[in-house]
Amino acid sequence: MIRNLLPLAALVALAACGKADGELNPGNWKTTMKVTSFEVPGAPPEMQAQIKQRMAMMMGQGQSTESCMTAEQAKAGVRDFSKKSQQGDCTLDPYTQGGGKMSGTLKCKGGQFGADGMKMEGTYSDSKVDMAMAADINQPALPGGKATIKMSVVSERTGDCKK
Length: 163
Description:
- The structure is a single chain.
- The chain has helices at 2-16, 45-60, 71-85, and strands at 27-39, 63-69, 90-98, 101-108, 118-125, 128-138, 146-159.
- It is of the alpha+beta class.
- The chain has a seven-stranded antiparallel β-sheet with strand order 2-1-7-6-5-4-3.
- A hairpin with a 7-residue loop joins β6 and β7 (146-159).
């Protein structure tokens, strides 16, 4: 009986040595953010056309950045990575992750895009994070006082860090 349990105990010990759920691979990461929708429902049609024209660049190709993720940052995982992808002092609350899926609300001091919080959901692996984000923006200066924004943020490991 004990002889049969030893291989099982060894497998459990080896499994504990693996990565934690949400842990990422260190290296060079490329992040691309695209605005997929920006609507100002209270704006007159000509203003909506101007807004769409101005947003065309971000809605087309998007904006990309690259950064080197250290082993320590990679171990902190997808939650920390998601918080830090938005520059500023941000929290994720509420937030859930598991089995390659995540969701939550990103809240940044100063309000990213003037929004109180951006809802996000997405998928992750150790080499890719793919999020869809959406927010309602409440600003008195906007026609009708509000707008909505939706965007996608995709981060992928592209190799070792560039020296």
